[in-house]
Amino acid sequence: KSANPQWREQFDFHYFSDRKDMLDIEVWRKDNKKHEELLGRCHVDITALPEKQSNCLELPLEKHPGSLLMLISVAPCTGVSISDLCVCPLGDPNERQQIAQRYCIKNSFRDMKDIGFLQVKVLKAVDLMAADFSGKSDPFCVLELGNDMLQTHTVYKNLNPEWNKVFTFPIKDIHDVLEVTVFDEDGDKPPDFLGKVAIPLLSV
């Protein structure tokens, strides 16, 4: 019930400078659980923004009244990684020892924002639902922690995909929940939902 909403949400996207990506933003209005209406969209050329500073942008919505006010910062990504199982970041005993030292009790108050990090090995899925007429699916896996999101590659025509990827997230809130969702890639259409599991960090 607001024409001037304030969200004050922060989202972290893992941007690689060799890509010429645009940041696409859409604003939607929700009447009820079933009806949604697009109120407008805008685009930001990430490559045109100065790095290592907060860029305050007022973005008019295309073909619709209104604008969005955003702070966008382009900075080196720390603490986030995607790797193959054979080169797992925690596989090196020396690195494990350094991490144990970094998070020992005597260093607890050195950096209050450095809570720790979560490493997730996404190995495989078994007996997924068939989403295609061929009796197969094209599954990929999405991991979300807070407002961080990473995903695997797609394994085509397979109900028992193996991804064998290792994902590392910085932890910003120990009460966050890791959500792991499996989707079926469907070309230009939105992906189909194949299943989901939620794991509270406090249970790990």
UniProtKB/TrEMBL annotation:
Q: Name one GO biological process term.
A: regulation of neurotransmitter secretion
**In the UniProt record, does the keyword Ribosomal protein occur?**
no
Keyword flag Membrane: yes
Report membrane topology. Multi-pass membrane protein
Mind telling me which GO cellular component terms the entry cites? synaptic vesicle membrane
Q: Output the lineage of the source organism.
A: Eukaryota, Metazoa, Chordata, Craniata, Vertebrata
> Which residues does UniProt call coiled coil?
none
The C2 domain extends over 1-59, 93-204
Question: Gene3D superfamilies recorded for this chain?
Answer: C2 domain
Give the main localization category: membrane
Which superkingdom heads the taxonomic lineage of this protein's source?
Answer: Eukaryota
Indicate what this protein is called per its UniProt record: MCTP2 protein
Please name the GO terms that the record assigns under molecular function.
Answer: calcium ion binding
Q: Which family does it belong to?
A: Belongs to the MCTP family.
- UniProtKB keywords: Calcium, Membrane, Metal-binding, Repeat, Transmembrane, Transmembrane helix
Provide the protein's localization: Membrane
Family annotation (Pfam families): C2
